[in-house]
Every structure is written in C-alpha cells, then in structure tokens.
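User: Run a structure prediction on this.
Assistant: Running it now.
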Amino acid sequence: RNYYGGNWASFSFSGLLSWIKENQEKTDTSDDCEDWRKLILENEEVISLSKKDKTIQHVEDFCFGDQDSAEDVEEAGALPKLPIFGASGAEGVAQELEKECPPMESALPEAESQEPEKATGTKPASAMEGNDTEITSKNESCHSTALGESALELGKTEAAPSEISAQEPKKITYSQIVREGRRFNIDLVSKLLYSRGLLIDLLIKSNVSRYAEFKNATRILAFREGKVEQVPCSRADVFNSRQLAMVEKRMLMKFLTFCLDYEQHPDEYQDYENSTFAQFLRTRKLTPSLQHFILHSIAMVSETDCSTLEGLQATKKFLQCLGRYGNTPFLFPLYGQGEIPQCFCRMCAVFGGIYCLRHSVQCLVVDKESGRCKAIVDHFGQRISANYFIVEDSYLSENICTNVCYRQISRAVLITDQSVLNTDSEQQVSILTVPPVDLGKPAVCVIELCSSTMTCMKDTYLVHLTCPSAKTAREDLEPVVQKLFNLNTEKETENEELEKPRVLWAVYFNMRDSSGVDKNLYDGLPSNVYVCSGPDSALGNDCAVKQAETIFQEMFPTEEFCPPPPNPEDIIYDEDEIAPEESGFSNSPETKPEPSTEESSSGGSTAVKKEDNEE
C-alpha cells in the first residue's frame, strides 16, 4: 500500500476519493518481476500471497451538497506527494503538486523536536490556545474518580457561544470540500480510546504517547422517541440534568453506585445471571428513560444478546473510566485514529525499524524439511530472510482461508453542516448509540467529530457510523442516516427536515472483521508465521492490544512487551551500527497542518505522557 496502517488508516479527502476508486475498480496487481521463481531452491516451496485486497466491499459514495464543478479545484496547501494510482478527475487534480497555491498552515515540527518544549512546560503549537490536559500514569491510585470526581481538572473555559448557531449553517459546496481536503483526516475504522483502557496504558508505558495528542469526547448522546438528547453520566451531570426528575436522579445514582462494586453484592444479581441485562434492568425500579440510557448509552450493549453479568461489567468499565481526563470515559486522537499506528511506526523508526510503503510481497518461502518459513520474495525479485513473519489476514490467499468464516462491519462516513444536537459550543465530540428498530438487529454507533479534532474543515462535522453487518453497509446504515440527517438536496423541504443537519457527502462500505479467528483454521501456515487481524467492530482497541501482545510473547517469551524506551543519552551504539538517520528509507509519516487559532481555542486537547520524574 502507499499509506500507513492498512485498514486502520486515515485519509485526506482526496486520498479517500482515490481509496474509493481503487476499491470500486478492484484491479489486479501484475507481477513486476516474472522470474522470481528462479530464487526458489529444490528443497523449498512457496506460499503465494493474495494480490488483491478483498477486505473492503460494497463501496458507494454520494454527494448531496451543491455539485458545482470541482474538476479544476486543487487542495490548498498540499504537500508534494507521489501520485496515487487510479486517481482521476477531482481527486486526481487535488493530488497534483502545488505550484501556485501557498501552504495554509505551517507543518508540525518533527515529534523529536517537540520534546524540549514539553520538558520545559511549554505547550505544543497545535494546542497553544486550548485547554491542555496531560495523561499521567500516577493517577491510577485515585479510585474515587468513577462518578466524575476528576483527579485531573480540565480547564473550565468554554468556547464563546456561536453567533452562527442561531442562524442557518453556512452553505458548503463540494469544491470547498475538495479545496480544503487536507483539513480532513477520515478514518477507515471509527474507534475511541477508553481512558483506562489497554491502549492508553500501553501508550503511557511505551512512551509512544509523546507523538500524539488527544481530545476528550465531550458528551454522550441517546436517541429516544425520535429525538437526540444528552445523557447525564457523571455525578455532576446527573444532578445538573434538567431532563431527569429528582426521583430519577436518585434512582440512577443508586444503580450506578451499585454497578461500581457489583461483585460485592452477588445476592442482587445472581438470580438473573441467565437473563439478559435488559430484563435485569426492568427489575431495578428504573424508569423506561433510565433503562434506555443505561442499556444503550452507558453499557452500550445489545438488548437481546447481552447477559446480566456482561452488562454489569460494561457499565462498571464505563464508570471506572469517568473522571480520569474529563466527564466522559473517552479520548479521541487529534488528526484521527490513523495517527496511532503512525505513532508506533515512528517509535520503531527511532530505534532502527524500517517501514516500507509501496513494497509488495510475492510469496513466503518454506523449507520442506523443517516446515518453517525461511524468507519472502518481494515484487522486485529480492529474497529477504528472517526468523519470524507477521502477516495481516487480508494478504492470505483463499486456499489458506477455506475454513475461515469472516464477519463483516458496516461503515458509513458523512460530512455534515451542523451537529446532531446543537448547543452553545460548536466544538463537541459526541458518541451516540441508535438502538435497532427490530429486535435482534445490531445497534448503530455514531461518532460525531468537530473541526477542533483536526479531522474536518471549519463549519463542518465528520460523522462515523458503525455496526456489525447484516446486509450491505448502505442497507444497514441508511435508515439511521435518514432518521438523524437531511438527505434532501432540493430547496423545498419540510420544517422537520430543515431542523436536521444536512449531509454534504457520504460513503458507505463493508469491511471484513477477521478478529477472533483461530490460527489453526488457516491451512498450511508454518509455525513461525503469525497472523494478525484487521479492525474489529468494538468501540475500543482492547482486541488489537491483546493480539499484539499475544503474538509478541509467542515469538519472544522472555522479553517485555513494549517496554519504556531508554533516554537517547543512555543509548550506547556499537561502532559498526548504522544510525537510523543514515539509512535511505524515510519512515516519518506525513506531517499534518497545525490547527487554526479558531479551531484550537474552541476545544482543549489532551497530551498523553508520563510525569517527567517517573521512570
């Protein structure tokens, strides 16, 4: 591939258009080297790898905004890029080298050069105007944060109420979206980070957090009786809520307090262990609205498939993550989820690892006697030997995966002109769970991102919809889109539709979920070849972290997984060791534009790092 992260990647708008075109055409990759088989010896055999990525299906994109001509429009401030094959039209022009248009923003400095600033207490440029919070590993000792008693106080400054919110949203055209394409960082997979989840712990422990910044998810929403409303989840939110009666507030606090230490009170739930969590909630003297909030917006579990214990565990996890960095349990990485794999790539590069883009592999070379993989042959006809091989599931050919039954994820990405729930502050990061209309079907997770997350242009919102697939992505998700948004491009629309956010552009696609596949189901794989999956449908990242650690421990059982890196001044190089900077490979991910003053001042960012005095 010509981008980092596989199906975990993030794209600018023009990059996503090229990705869409590539997946709609599904062209076969031809062999650059015809005589690579001459490299295979008599006592060796090959396992051919797939030449086509079949993890993405049913890609459909739609433009609902004013479709003015965008053929001659270029991305403002685009950095020089190698051409992406298959791009044409608006997307092709937007990727050409910029000769006349000056950059809109200076690029971020290299992550290594930011360290002295952080050490002296100065804020990085991308968050200079925001309310910064640093994530440390010291506040683990504070267990009283679960209901909003935050160990870290976020800045109280709110963005000034927008004068535009009471008026009609600004009219955004398609050519504007293309021109501001580098302002978009659109994730293929939509996830949030639990503030006490495995990935946050790993980022802190490994010090990879130095390369990333995060923004708090500011609100949890619910969709009930055709309306979107905010869910009170912290202690302060519950008692400040106007939508709950005083009796309901007491009910909710009593139940949430019970969930925090439910293991200590088995007599209260053991009679319902074989029941669903929804049935258990009905026995707790909770009003229908409270049951809805707990089931769909706090526990975020299925009404029909989730057991009582699973629901209590999910609710406890939610509550334990509250208050660590804000009034919700979630963080979102600035510039998108695709920054996370790039951060790990950068740390790897600092210590000599090499990440090669546009470098495909023809086959694995297996020794017939030992049955172990000895080498790979790349598309240049070059043979590369190694002791261990890690292969992402999508690279395996069909004859290896004949016994594997994959699940699918339905995804949609929308660019809209306003939020699903307007408030005084435009800069909101929201998560909304839309329950299914029919029992037995999956709920749809909606994550709405504002421009201060550095994922979309000013005056727009980026909305991600995700659910396990039942049909094609459009069939699964379009009914939810129609409930929440206005898809009508005509000027004359009903008043009810005018109140909804207008969709400017949308894409639907299905993504393979290869998580949870047993390695024994893959036919004929050598013991030293390890398979990792693509993204799963869960909201968090625990599955990926567990899988990475499991594979690492199988290869190196005596080594520590992602240990804290040594300080640069403590590293002693061998005389014959070549410093990573002297190699001819460029490992650094593409730099991103800095946030504008308006964007950075309207929402606080969060830097994940350890205390300076902590080893």
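DSSP finds 15 helices and 21 strands in the chain.
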